[in-house]
User: Fold these one by one.
Assistant:
Number 1:
Amino acid sequence: MYNKEIKIILSLAILSASVYLFNEGEIGYGIVVLLIMGLVILSIFKNERILKAFYHLRKNDMQKAGKTLSKIKHPEKLIKSQEAYFYYLNGLVLSQTQMNQAEKLFKKALSVGLRSDTDKAVAKLNLAGLALSRRRKREATTLLTEVKKLDKHNMLDDQVKMMKQQLKRI
């Protein structure tokens, strides 16, 4: 519940230990303790459970990713970008089974603010796929044009072409 505050207090305690070690002449130990403090500060900005869920998604293990994300009880207490990625990852996990919930989560992730244009493009591509499955052709075409604008490295070209072919069939 107070995870971020505990990490800040811990990093301040580690900083004071490092200063003490530098004053005592233990330069090597002081540097090691500073590196440990850097890891604690990094964990403030990068939630370890979200990183673990990304790992499980890369391994294509949706169940483990869902379990890892379900351990985060209060996503609104995360940093904004972490909160957006929490909703994004949950949307990816639920897109296989619960389309209505996945659509809400993708929209919430986009409204909170994903950092990467590629992630925004993937979220909008999934929303376009959901709109296509519900026969909302206009919404799907606008989302697909936004995906083409956001996809600067042309990684999603095949999926966009496939969806446009499906749009022609409707």
Number 2:
Amino acid sequence: MDRRNALKNSGLLAGTAIAMPGLLSLLQSCKSESRLGWQPSFFTEDEATTISMLVDMILPRTDTPGALDVNVDVFIDKVIAQSYTKKDQQKMRDDIAAFNEGCKTNFGKVFHELTEDKRIAVLQAAEKSNAKFNPGIWGKSIGEQESIGFYRSLKATAIWAYITSEEIGKTVLSYDPIPGKFQACIPVGDVGNKWTF
């Protein structure tokens, strides 16, 4: 999985972030959460461990901060606790249980107890078996969107949480809190990084 390509292809997620500013405040509130002192609002301890391991593998720390560095797992927990319906919350629990059950069936252990090479194999299989997002225009999917499944849905949420975090907005993406002069026609190469929101 190439994080840079994932970030380049996340325009759809960016549009969602603009439409849902209330959730952005949740992300900023996650910034102060301590990694060791984090008490999940929704997840059980095992579910939280699974989600943390998943987002860390999807967006690991490299020369830029990883998902755990900007508390993506904490953000996902708060979003589910504060904005999901009871039905959707139960579906999330069922999806995590089914995901871990698949890991146990194929490798003998739940996801977060697997060795790294087996976790990579699980994610590679999930990439192949989960439906992809349809191409879209202006945030609208072209054609009827097939259910994308637990893994792809979590991945999309993790990328969205990651690119809309304050730290990534300021240190990885281009950031200009007070825009300068308007330049209508400049070469695309002069733009540099993707711009933060």
Number 3:
Amino acid sequence: MKISARNQLKGTVKAVKEGAVNGVVTIACGDETIKADITMESIKELGLAEGVEAYAVVKATNVMFATDKIAGISARNQLAGKIVAVKEGAVNGHVAIELADGNRISGSITNESIEQLGLKEGGTAVAIIKATDVMVAVD
């Protein structure tokens, strides 16, 4: 699978909660779990069920960052890690964090946000991703 989305985390489906139109797929990726809100049609077409290998796929533009986990937020995915790269561009930059299990999450945010949050290599940050921004793929 070759796609332009920077974040492709391989894991195993831990749970599928079915709804009338959409379902929530929980994928265990190393030490973390990632929740994806996708259509029931996609769940069935991809054959997603507990124990199936799958990828959580997230575009870098759909990743937000915080300095700590946030209580009382609707985003289902909060992944804490060490900042391993910060590259600023003309207006936007890229930040990459490494999770405890070695997986990496990259996000594209404004340079202003990088500076205001004090994101620097060697520091820590939390990647925040809405479940509706997570795509699921299978081999």
